[in-house]
Amino acid sequence: MRYVLILFMALLALLVDWYIWRRVVCRRFPRRWFKAAYLASVVLIDLGVVIAMLIYKFGAERQSAGMMVAVMWTICVFFLSTAPKITYAAVSLLDYPVRWITRRRSHIFGYLGTALGLAVFGVMLYGATAGRRTIRVEQVTVCSAKVPPSFDGFRIAFFSDTHIGTLRPHSVLVRRMVETINGLDPDLVVNGGDLVNIQSDDLTPGFADQLSAIRSRHGVVSVLGNHDKGYYIFDTTRLSPRQSIAELAAKQRRLGWTLLVDSAAYIVRSADSIAVSGVDYERWTGDNTGNARRIGAGLDRACAAIPDSVFNLLVSHSPLIWDQAVASGYGDLMLSGHVHAMQMKFRLGRLVWSPAELIYPEWSGLYERGGRRLYINDGIGCVMFPMRIGARPEVTLVTLCHEKQSTR
Question: In this structure, are residues 346 and 390 in contact, taking their beta carbons and an 8 Å threshold?
Answer without folding.
Answer: yes
